[in-house]
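Sequence in, structure out. Go.
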Amino acid sequence: MGKSTVARALARSLHAPLFHFPPEFRRFRRAVRLDHDVAPLPRLAYYLAGALHLSSMVEEALAVGPVVCDRYLPSPLGLIEADGSTDPAVIDAFRRTFEPHVLRPNVTLLLVADHATAVDRSDRRGRSERGTTAVHLRALESEPFFRDWEASLRRAAARLGPVVEIDTSSLSLRQSVDEALAAIGRS
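Output:
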């Protein structure tokens, strides 16, 4: 069970559309090997542009009802920060430029798990080079990077508004979705 699985189940439970970075964004990401071959700053700019696009899609859908996002602005910001190859002041300058133009979520659910559980879940899903990004492979292979990325995501999400952290390490999919629904009810 991963974050995307919980997001899909949550969207079904809420009868809400599920948003992720657009398919065109993900195709381009794979085609140019964005996470493998592109330097951090242009990669961050591309991710932030994707977050702006995603934000406009979400804003339009909110006119009809609730939405669920599987990844959002904290994802690229946390990733580049955790990578450690870019000066934090530069990342902050990028963030300050883009953040005012991104719709703030009512609540961000930060689903976390201990490293061993994340590795086990990935292995059970059939981790592959094609299906797993370079960053995710690095996180699975390095617990310190995994923890740094999680801490960076936590900081990036907190800047956008309320965050509810759910440790899914010992939870089933149903329990994780129930926790997420309860968290949304409390926000």
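Check: The chain has a mean pLDDT of 88. The chain has one domain: 3-186.
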